[in-house]
Amino acid sequence: MSKLSVNINKVATIRNARGGNNPDIIKVALDCERFGAEGITVHPRPDERHIRYQDVIDLKPLLTTEFNIEGRPDERFMDLVLKTKPAQVTLVPDAPDAITSNAGWDTIRHRAYLKDIIAEFKSNGIRTSIFVDPLIDMVDGAAETGTDRIELYTEAYATGYHNNKESVIAPYLEAAKLAAELGLGVNAGHDLDLHNLKYLKDNMPELLEVSIGHALICDALYLGLENTIQQYLRQLR
Ligand SMILES: CC(=O)[C@@H](O)[C@H](O)COP(=O)(O)O
Ligand SMILES: NCC(=O)COP(=O)(O)O
């Protein structure tokens, strides 16, 4: 079974636009769980343009599904995650000013760095995942870091899906297969939506979890949040 983790960053973007507490992040997260989400993902960024560090602290004791915190492991992020102790931390190599995540880790170049960070999170009982492009060398390198899982960066899959889904999915299937052979769990995320999700799920038996935010929250504007989450879950069953 592949779990659906709803990324609520975009909900925080709307809240922050007016400086108040509407929509209420906590209520939305709990409603996502009530509507069937099997996890909640947040990706706090240094400028706190959407999810704030305090949101992460406030959410943790209230969530009943898997909490996944994504981000670049700078000192502040490390402190936040170690204090919050979510079910999973996903390490992403974003530059602080990146508009959104735009690349996976070079797991060969940053192997020693990742290894230390991963060891620290794991010794605190936090499952680790690292964001990688679907490249054999990067998956091999990921296994060397000691991480529990990888998250395949699906932007290229999503972009190419409508032109040639067979060829665009191929490197992802190869990467997922190798990851499983190396003992790594496989997550996926970025730009997944109601069009491209089912094909990924149906072809990737290793897929444990997807985290979806942007498209899901956009769909909810038209379909409503409960109906949208149900539709995403249906793609994964
Ligand atoms: C890691 C990843 O794939 C991102 O999609 C991310 O978690 C979303 O970040 P933003 O909401 O800041 O675009
Ligand atoms: N890890 C990916 C994620 O959490 C959401 O990405 P997106 O659906 O907002 O592109």
Write the layout of secondary structure elements.
Elements: E1 3-7, H1 9-18, H2 25-34, E2 39-42, H3 53-59, E3 66-71, H4 75-84, E4 88-91, H5 111-123, E5 127-132, H6 136-145, E6 149-153, H7 155-181, E7 185-189, H8 197-203, E8 207-212, H9 214-223, H10 225-235
Parallel strand pairs: 1-2, 1-8, 2-3, 3-4, 4-5, 5-6, 6-7, 7-8
The protein binds 1-deoxy-D-xylulose-5-phosphate (DXP) and the ligand NCC(=O)COP(=O)(O)O.
Ligand LD2JLWAY binds at residues 7, 41, 70, 151, 189-192, 211-215.
Report on the architecture of this protein.
This is Pyridoxine 5'-phosphate synthase. It catalyses: 3-amino-2-oxopropyl phosphate + 1-deoxy-D-xylulose 5-phosphate = pyridoxine 5'-phosphate + phosphate + 2 H2O + H(+). The record marks 151 as: Transition state stabilizer. Its main location: cytoplasm. Helix 6 links the parallel strand 5 (127-132) and strand 6 (149-153). The protein has helices at 9-18, 25-34, 53-59, 75-84, 111-123, 136-145, 155-181, 197-203, 214-223, 225-235; strands at residues 3-7, 39-42, 66-71, 88-91, 127-132, 149-153, 185-189, 207-212. The chain has an 8-stranded parallel β-barrel, surrounded by 6 helices. The protein starts with a strand and ends with a helix. The chain has 237 residues and is of the alpha/beta class. It has a single domain (3-235), classed as Alpha-Beta Barrel (TIM Barrel), CATH 3.20.20. The protein is built from 10 helices and 8 strands. Bound molecules: 1-deoxy-D-xylulose-5-phosphate and ligand LD2JLWAY. 1-deoxy-D-xylulose-5-phosphate binds at residues 7, 9, 43, 45, 70, 92, 100-101, 131, 189-190, 213.
